[in-house]
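User: Please fill in residues for this 81-position structure.
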């Protein structure tokens, strides 16, 4: 999973391709969630249109980060107002 990601340093951002092509994503696979969570220090969901899905990147990953390290982005917050 880490292949092709920036190495070392702080304040790096990586954009992943569409995760829905991976069976682990759509099945909310705990191992896939853990592999995704290992890639970062914080979780921000700004995808209101997919927030209803019980997928690994929507449910599994934020549960691994826990309170204070996972939250909604600005667009998500605006939709929820």
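Assistant: Residues filled in for all 81 positions:
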């Amino acid at each position: 999973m880490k292949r092709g990601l920036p190495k070392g340093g702080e304040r790096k951002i990586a954009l992943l391709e569409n995760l829905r092509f991976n069976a682990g994503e759509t099945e909310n696979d705990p191992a896939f969630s853990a592999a995704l969570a290992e890639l970062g220090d914080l979780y921000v969901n700004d995808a209101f249109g997919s927030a209803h899905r019980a997928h690994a990147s929507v449910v599994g990953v934020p549960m691994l980060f826990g309170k204070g390290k996972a939250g909604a982005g600005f667009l998500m917050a605006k939709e929820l107002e």
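For context: DSSP finds four helices and two strands in the chain.
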